[in-house]
Amino acid sequence: MHVDSIKEMIFYQGGDKSVFRKVTFEVLKNISDHVYPFYWNHDDNYYNDKNLDFMTAVNPDSFPIVVFYVRKSFIDADMFFNNTVEGICFRNKSGLKGMVFTPTRYLVSRDKRILNRNFYNKTYLDIKHVSYMPKLFFLDSFECFPLALFYESIISVLSYELDISVDKFLVMLYENTLHLYLENYNKIVRNEATFKEILNKKNISHTEIFSSYYYLLLKILKHYLPANGIYTFHDVGTELACLPAMILDMTARSQAGINISKIIASDCVPQQHELLIWMQKYNDLPHNIDFRFNFLDLLDSDSKPPVCDITVSIDVLEHLPDEETAKEGLLKLWDMTKEVLIVHVPIETKENKWHDHNMLFDKDKISQWAAEIPGSVSLEYFRDNNDIIDLPACGFLILFREQGSADVSHLKGIIRE
Prior knowledge:
With 417 residues, this protein is of the alpha/beta class.
């Protein structure tokens, strides 16, 4: 739309947050080819602890005209840019604060393979490091930055730019992510890179980190559990269900190295339609594994984990509200585990704590918690990532039943190779 045809579009300068969001969205909708429907998807309660009263994303071609009108309408406005997004923050005369951004051409790329799980971390770190412009209100306290809305907005715009539905975009993202997990996992298997070498990389990616974690946990299971056994597997906090998909894929190609008869993928968030579509592809492979999703809320006393031989919980406990709840969650998982419980938490400090982590873990805390688990034999594995400023070190807690079928002492050397 031409600038001359929208001269009468006026941004709201009052103090009513609901009106501010609604009017800002309506103005953007009239001057942009595509705008994420921020106002309609979140009620007022979502913003109670946020430092922005409005946020959305628009398509790149519309962004210059958005900047034109924001600068024209708000005295207090400032722009930012980095490798993945550029945006403008503004404050109205009553002090209400907003932000509009757009993905850079790097993300809106013809090479769709760059759109994988890594882009969440990349955009997060890029936006967190915008610290050289004093009017950028979300930097007052990045703990209050509406990160979930940020991701929803950028996915909406990227889907628009690629001319596909959000469902198809997410399926593509999951598929690209799994491809990288398998690629990185197989590099370690083929001795092209070691577990330690990957975790010591300065520019390590999310998919490299997690494929390394998956390699380590499968290695532990292969060396501990008898090869002639048949096992059930529970992935807690499954999110994109990439670990179950990896196991299904490797089992279909006779590469898993462990005989699993059932996989249960649990999360506290109901599985979205696009995830069910994507996982069906791997559920249809010739693997003879009974796979299913499961709803599990560790905060709900009535929500019981399924009983399985193997339970895996990667980066879950730090998201629980407090230490007491996290301990209770750990005990709940242990009570429902027949053979092995493998838990990973990030080793963090206040300086490098991830955005939505509610507690810090260190080596002493993990060792102390391990000592308090009844009927268990524990191994702990820590790896410092001192050269990696933005990503925490790793802390594994591996719990075995005391009456287990094998001695665990030999595993100490195996997991440190």
